[in-house]
Specification:
alpha+beta; Alpha-Beta Plaits; four-stranded antiparallel β-sheet; 3 helices; Thiamine_BP; UPF0045_domain; Thiamine-binding protein; MTH1187/YkoF-like
Length: 98
């Protein structure tokens, strides 16, 4: 089976009694940024582009970075767009709005 390019939207909602949530979210976005894959940060989630297995690994690393930064609990929400035998690109969906 061919490994298609997919889009994975991830929303990480950290919970901490002592650390600002945005600081913790920044740690997750840093992991995504450092991965080198294409991504777009939006107000509610970050959308990544790549092979699903790779993106899930990055998502897990982002989650772990939030825990390492001091979160006591993390809620993680995923949305994945997959096409049968066809790639999904972020630019195809948002380029016309730039």
């Amino acid at each position: 089976m061919k490994k298609n390019i997919v889009n994975l939207g991830i929303q990480i909602v950290p919970k901490s009694k002592s650390i600002d949530s945005y600081e913790l979210v920044d740690k997750a976005i840093e992991v995504i940024k450092n991965s080198g894959i294409p991504y777009v940060v939006t107000p509610f989630e970050t959308v990544m582009e790549g092979e699903q297995d790779e993106l899930m690994k990055i998502a897990r690393n982002a989650q772990e970075a939030v825990f390492k930064a001091g979160a006591e609990e993390v809620l993680v929400y995923y949305r994945i767009q997959i096409r049968n035998n066809e790639d999904v690109f972020i630019s195809d969906k948002i380029e016309k709005y730039k």
